[in-house]
Recover the amino acids of this structure.
């Protein structure tokens, strides 16, 4: 009966399964420790929340061969310069609103979510806002009355009114501006950004 | 002794009676998944449908959450189903398990009602704790998360302690270790952070390491039991295959997690790691197809439950194509750059969840009704056997059709939205209003109706199959018993 070759033996595969799983898990732990450091807020890849006080643009990088976010001069959101704590508070409020309103079951953020509405990763930089000077007001108006300001390009899909107060809409915009500054390795690709002034 | 052909829960052991409860709720949630999926699909075609009452985000949330939860109910049920058989002893804490079932079901009901009736809340912690956490697939508010973990711990205790009291088979060992990982990983999704890169990093630990690692291993173990039950495959063979699958699945799937870390802010080394390991993820799925087909061939397809075996085979192929091929198609970063977050993902998601998980759960529903009716005949020549064959066909054709339609829509998006129009808001709508996309969404709906018809037929069949049948099922289990414990032929009667 014991003619089973070693490579077909139950016991060999049992040990292999345990060792492979353990090895891969340990590798994942090490990679995770490094990744968490590289994506902490204030790192090169994920800028500090105070980036909402600055101009954010998306520039083609010759070396990496795709667009990367570039932090520019002072350009406080709604002309209000915020301290580190204030910026964190407003971006946090923005994200909690986005979670509480279930935005991700229509939109994608960083490409994850549902596909019924546009990706929001670089929405702050989208050319649909026309000009940098008008962008903040247009975003505010849109978020406070998305049905009245809908542009659906023939699809008929309109964002439902989320009943956001002005303060809430501003917090959402702060979050979106901060998110646009994250280095997402060139995603979304070939992005057409808002015309740059100056 | 009860009559063959009549549903009588006395035909079942304690674990199996509890399993039937789980299966029943699973079927109800399956129907809810289809209903809300249909509503969401219709909203692509008629955007004003139920506007302001049940908006797309609500329908879609219920659609995907009903799916996750019914599959978990199916898995828990399947494990309770095989627990006493495998361990050779009674479930140690059956009463506790029953209480857990009712608590979980009450919690799920409350969560769904809140999703449907309250829908959203202000941007506060209270919303995240009591209404909606707003994170795809794990939208359940935090109170429910804690409840789910508590109930899962009860379930884990029952499984581990029962195996420890009785026999610890290979299948039992894999299930217990896998449940540790499953429960542990859920914790990775139970905290709030503003840093969305960090948020997504841990979110994928739950989503990917569940769906592409621990769930796959779990269905591998359930499949092993299923092949023994239907075909009478020898334990030693299914156990060895199970270990091979675990080695390959975790070997590829754990670091395969990296294919979700291309674009969320994480470092570039994930391109190589995620691309390589996720490209290997189909390998164990090939092994599972070989295993299932080979065993069926060796046993000349002689089996004690035709519908269950058919669904097990559908699982082997569905898992390979849906999770394996459809996943591989867009897993490399060079391609994923154009496909991530488009209908490609939806196409892959539909075929993978159906092929890998819906199928095998349905196979267990058939085990359940067979035994509940006194181990009734479920092989050739059953009265009304057109029902299970047609529901199998309609469900598979329906899901495949939706998958292809969404793939066409995904190609449209990759080309028009991404490659040409640079992923802007206008690019998005240019792709969505393109004739290819619109036609694809119409076809998706046609196949959605076919899927719904298959579901209705399945539910009807589960209630009717075997009714009035007087023949007993043939037993192919004699081949299992000899090497059940030691792997050696059994000695004669003691």
């Amino acid at each position: 009966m014991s003619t089973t070759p070693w490579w077909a033996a139950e016991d060999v595969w049992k040990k292999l399964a345990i060792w492979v799983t353990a090895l891969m898990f340990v590798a994942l732990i090490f990679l995770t420790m490094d990744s968490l450091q590289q994506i902490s807020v204030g790192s090169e890849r994920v800028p500090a929340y105070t980036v909402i006080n600055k101009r954010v643009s998306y520039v083609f990088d010759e070396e990496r061969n795709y667009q990367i976010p570039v932090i520019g001069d002072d350009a406080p959101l709604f002309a209000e310069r915020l301290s580190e704590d204030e910026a964190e508070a407003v971006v946090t409020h923005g994200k909690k609103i986005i979670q509480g309103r279930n935005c991700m079951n229509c939109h994608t953020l960083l490409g994850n979510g549902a596909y019924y509405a546009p990706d929001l990763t670089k929405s702050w930089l989208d050319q649909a806002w026309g000009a940098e000077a008008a962008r903040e007001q247009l975003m505010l108006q849109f978020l406070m009355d998305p049905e009245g300001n809908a542009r659906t390009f023939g699809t008929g899909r309109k964002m439902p009114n989320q009943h956001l107060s002005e303060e809430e809409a501003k917090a959402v915009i702060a979050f979106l501006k901060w998110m646009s500054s994250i280095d997402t390795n060139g995603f979304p690709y070939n992005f057409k950004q808002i015309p740059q002034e100056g | 002794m009860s009559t063959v052909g009549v549903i009588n829960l006395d035909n079942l052991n304690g674990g199996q009676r509890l399993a039937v409860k789980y299966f029943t709720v699973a079927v109800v949630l399956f129907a809810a998944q289809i209903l809300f999926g249909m509503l969401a699909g219709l909203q692509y075609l008629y955007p004003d449908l139920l506007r302001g009452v049940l908006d797309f985000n609500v329908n879609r949330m219920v659609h995907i959450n009903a799916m996750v939860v019914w599959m978990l109910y199916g898995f828990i049920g399947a494990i309770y189903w095989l627990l006493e058989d495998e361990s050779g002893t009674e479930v140690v804490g059956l009463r506790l398990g029953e209480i857990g079932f009712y608590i979980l079901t009450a919690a799920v009901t409350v969560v769904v009602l809140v999703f449907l009736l309250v829908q959203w809340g202000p941007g506060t912690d209270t919303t995240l704790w009591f209404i909606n956490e707003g994170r795809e697939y794990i939208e359940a508010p935090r109170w429910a998360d804690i409840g789910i973990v508590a109930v899962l711990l009860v379930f884990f205790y029952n499984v581990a302690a029962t195996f420890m009291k009785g026999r610890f088979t290979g299948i039992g060992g894999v299930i217990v270790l896998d449940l540790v990982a499953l429960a542990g990983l859920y914790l990775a999704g139970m905290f709030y952070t503003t840093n969305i890169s960090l948020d997504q990093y841990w979110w994928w630990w739950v989503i990917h390491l569940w769906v592409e690692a621990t769930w796959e291993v779990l269905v591998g173990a359930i499949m092993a039991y299923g092949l023994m039950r239907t075909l009478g495959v020898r334990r030693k063979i299914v156990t060895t295959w199970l270990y091979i699958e675990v080695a390959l699945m975790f070997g590829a799937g754990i670091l395969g997690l990296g294919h979700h870390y291309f674009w969320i802010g994480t470092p570039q080394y994930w391109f190589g790691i995620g691309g390589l390991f996720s490209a290997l993820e189909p390998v164990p799925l090939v092994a599972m197809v070989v295993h299932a087909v080979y065993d069926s061939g060796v046993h000349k397809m002689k089996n004690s439950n035709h519908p269950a075996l058919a669904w097990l085979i559908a699982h082997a192929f569905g898992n390979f194509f849906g999770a394996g091929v459809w996943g591989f198609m867009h897993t490399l970063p060079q391609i994923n750059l154009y496909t991530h977050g488009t209908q490609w993902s939806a196409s892959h998601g539909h075929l993978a969840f159906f092929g890998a998980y819906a199928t095998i759960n349905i196979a267990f529903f058939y085990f359940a009704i067979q035994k509940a009716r006194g181990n009734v005949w479920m092989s050739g020549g059953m009265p009304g056997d057109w029902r299970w064959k047609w529901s199998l066909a309609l469900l598979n054709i329906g899901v495949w059709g939706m998958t292809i339609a969404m793939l066409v829509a995904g190609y449209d998006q990759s080309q028009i939205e991404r490659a040409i129009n640079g992923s802007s808001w206008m690019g998005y709508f240019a792709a969505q209003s393109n004739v290819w996309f619109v036609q694809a969404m119409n076809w998706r709906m046609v196949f959605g109706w076919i899927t719904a018809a298959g579901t209705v037929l399945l539910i009807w069949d589960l209630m009717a199959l075997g009714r009035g049948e007087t023949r007993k099922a043939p037993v192919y289990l004699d081949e299992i018993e000899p090497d059940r414990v030691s792997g050696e032929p059994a000695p004669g009667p003691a």
About this structure: The two ends of chain B are 27 Å apart (CA to CA).
